[in-house]
Write a structure and sequence with these properties.
It contains 11 helices and 36 strands. By secondary structure, it is an alpha+beta fold. The structure holds alpha-D-galactopyranose.
């Protein structure tokens, strides 16, 4: 496994369990992509770097598959690198210099043919999940400054097939991670964020197939960019009908200055391959994230209560204690106070930036509430939004220059707030200290770190010469750095990444985030689509789902408690209802679901996810989780609406051990894994918003003999 070189061919094979990725140096010295797909076990099968054919007007560069594709010569495709030298040269031609293999990492150093510019292309192979992490390091080895105008983390070249289909996630606030699948024709399909954060509109995830993959079959190339700012992914069909996927920091309004000797390291882009469809692609990403990316991945996530939808800004010691007592009765493990506890924060027009406890709401600070929460057997969490400031705050009155702005021009507010300029070191220190002080003063186990507006007027007055357009990256890197330092000092504190719901969900912040707030939309039916899309790119352990009240505040829908719980039990469960509105019977029913969730939690959070029936194709959605050892499975089934005469369709589980005996915990029925998978489970779900959770448990003493 891993990486081996073929010195006589100047080629390298990056081998994972079920895939080979091959690159090599061609006669001109360029690093070319040669192959990506099912393993080529015989060395004769490895392609050579023979030159590509070319047409008049369409130069061979256009049909070349350079791994780093700099803008230079006649490369007209989306470039992997575009540089502006001090003498006005803007052409880059990279040739091979040296290669180095260290464990599962391959680094290939390329140099410009004339200029003092060095580009190291880095590949890290994660063999059991068939993924490769790629990044580039651009170094100015000359004397004068160099400006980078575009730098992609990776260019992925797909094998040549007659048609290509892109799967991606799009949406908006309240409807994030909506799944889309479309054929790619000539030209570019761009998914991007130019708003300062990962964004609600597009998510930096992609999957490409050749128009024929299904959930369980077919070749799928997939991946994602690990970055939480300004990004783009460009799927481009070249005039030669080939497809390349360029992924990296967005070049729009971006420029990075490299002084002599300085380097710029791109974020990581992850790419993977499977020959077993979209489901396997997702399970590979989930496994990779659980083992290599997600913070605190070894621990199960506690069930939290969050009081935002119950008390909004009107939080105080009395009402929070009252909710905490009820949450504890339900079996909740963590109590989180959301917005409203600090400064003059009685509404969203004031207070952001003033991270001192509001003494009217909490006369003796947060101590008494935290003591109460802890004595009830829960740990305590709190909401913060430290990258922001309301103009109506002491912080802004003292430091109006701390926000992004252009001198003497209006500053556009979003949710009555402005974005602090995290490129500034004094602002970084303020943000770090505000949260550090909170964590040092109180017994806090969990931070929900929010961010509630996109950037506008992204100016940095007083920036070092030539560095003002670096804010798109400096902000993100400063945020990562602040989280990293806070976590080093307070290692037991878990972090949730939130940006008005799922506006900052990606594999970049995932290294520092234990979980994500998936969406402000907590309607259990809408959530089926949001969570379905989410599951394509991210593990269920990271996906926080609350059960909230009915009628839902966003769309006025009424849904039974059971359906609401089942929908939320497909990720990391949370409760967001005003518990004072629940009857005794509802409290008991809710406690029952929470107890059930505790028994299935390891399977949902750490098992293998199988998407059985998509929300958009029928009035039935079904998703299954199987324990990694195959011992147990949980199948969730949701009937959206009853239509007279529609046949009740069986739900067919997947991923069970075919010859093992599995018992349906509710009915006692026993069948082989194959029996459950082939015959399926016929459920009588009636009325609108009916749902079921089926547990199949293996009886290991009774495996069937294979016949
Ligand atoms: C954002 C979050 C919500 C809540 C509010 C508080 O909208 O997504 O969950 O925390 O802010 O103002």
């Amino acid at each position: 496994m891993a990486i081996f070189s073929l010195p006589e061919r100047k080629a390298w094979v990056l081998r994972t369990q079920h895939a080979d990725y091959v690159i090599g140096v061609d006669a001109s010295g360029a690093l070319q992509h040669l192959y990506w797909g099912e393993p080529l076990s015989i060395s004769d099968d490895i392609p050579s770097t023979a030159g590509q054919h070319a047409w008049i007007w369409e130069p061979e560069e256009g049909n070349s598959r350079e791994e780093c594709m700099p803008w230079g010569r006649r490369n007209f495709a989306e470039p992997g690198l575009k540089v502006d030298f001090a003498d006005q040269t803007r052409d880059v031609v990279l040739t091979f210099d040296e290669a180095d293999i260290e464990g599962n990492t391959l680094r290939i150093v390329l140099k410009d043919v004339l200029k003092s510019l060095q580009v190291t292309v880095c590949y890290r192979v994660i063999d059991i999940f068939d993924v490769i992490e790629r990044s580039v390091d651009v170094k100015n080895t000359g004397m004068g400054p160099v400006n980078i105008e575009q730098v992609m983390s990776a260019i992925w070249h797909l094998p040549v097939y007659p048609s290509y289909r892109l799967t991606y996630l799009t949406g908006h606030w309240g409807a994030e991670t909506q799944l889309r699948r479309e054929l790619l024709h000539e030209g570019k399909k761009v998914i991007e964020a130019r708003r300062g954060i990962t964004g609600h509109n597009n998510n930096p995830f992609f999957a490409v197939d050749f128009g024929e993959a299904t959930e369980e079959t077919g070749l799928v190339y997939f991946g994602g960019l690990a970055f939480s700012g300004h990004w783009k992914i460009v799927a481009e069909r070249t005039p030669y009908q080939t497809l390349q996927i360029a992924a990296g920091i967005h070049d729009f309004d971006f420029r990075w200055r490299l002084e002599a000797g300085e380097s710029f390291v791109s974020p990581v882009c992850v790419g993977g391959f499977t020959n077993q469809g979209f489901g396997d692609a997702s399970r590979k990403l989930h496994g990779y994230q659980q083992q290599h990316v997600l913070r605190g991945s070894g621990q199960l996530r506690p069930i939290l209560y969050n009081s935002w939808e119950a008390t909004s800004f009107d939080v105080n010691e009395t009402n929070q204690k009252e909710l905490a007592a009820k949450a504890a009765r339900l079996g909740v493990e963590r109590f989180v106070v959301d917005d409203g506890w600090f400064g003059q924060r009685d509404h969203d027009k004031a207070g952001l930036g003033d991270w001192v406890v509001n003494k009217i709401k909490f006369p003796q600070g947060l101590g008494p509430l935290i003591d109460e929460v802890t004595s009830l057997g829960m740990d305590f969490g709190i909401w913060v939004e430290p990258e922001m400031v309301n103009p109506d705050s002491d912080l802004y009155r003292q430091h109006p220059d701390w926000v992004y702005h252009f001198p003497d021009r209006p500053r556009t507010e979003g949710r009555n707030q402005l974005v602090l300029n995290l490129a500034r070191e004094d602002v970084q220190a303020f943000v770090y200290n505000a949260v550090d002080e909170l964590l040092s003063t109180y017994a806090i186990s969990f931070i929900k770190w929010d961010m509630n507006r996109y950037f506008s007027e992204p100016g940095w007055p007083g920036a070092p010469v030539g560095r003002d357009r670096e804010i798109w990256v400096r902000h993100v890197n400063a945020l990562y750095d602040i989280w990293r330092r806070l976590q080093e000092k307070h290692p037991h504190v878990q972090f949730e990444s939130c940006a008005g719901g799922g506006g900052r969900v990606d594999m970049g912040i995932m290294r520092y985030a234990d979980q994500f707030w998936t969406s402000d939309n907590t309607d259990a039916l809408d959530r089926l689509r949001i969570q379905w899309g989410y599951s394509h790119a991210y593990t269920a352990k990271s996906m926080v789902c609350w059960v909230t009240e009915t009628v839902n505040y966003m769309n006025g829908r009424q849904i039974p408690l059971k359906f609401r719980f089942h929908s939320a039990m497909m990720g990391t469960l949370g409760i967001g209802m005003n518990l004072n509105h629940l009857t005794e019977a509802e409290m008991e029913e809710a406690a029952g679901y929470i107890a059930q969730y505790k028994t299935i939690r390891p399977i949902v959070q750490e098992g293998l996810c199988y998407r059985l029936s998509p929300p958009e194709q029928s009035d039935l959605t079904s998703v299954q989780y199987v324990a990694k050892d195959g011992q147990e499975a949980v199948v969730f089934v949701f009937r959206h609406a009853q239509h007279f005469g529609h046949p009740a369709l069986p739900v067919r589980p997947r991923g069970l051990a075919p010859s093992a005996r599995y018992r349906n915990v509710a009915t006692g029925e026993v069948r082989s894994g194959q029996g459950w998978m082939s015959r399926g489970i016929l459920l009588r779900l009636t009325g609108d918003y009916d749902s079921a959770m089926i547990r199949l448990v293996q009886d290991e003493s009774n495996t069937y003999e294979s016949k």
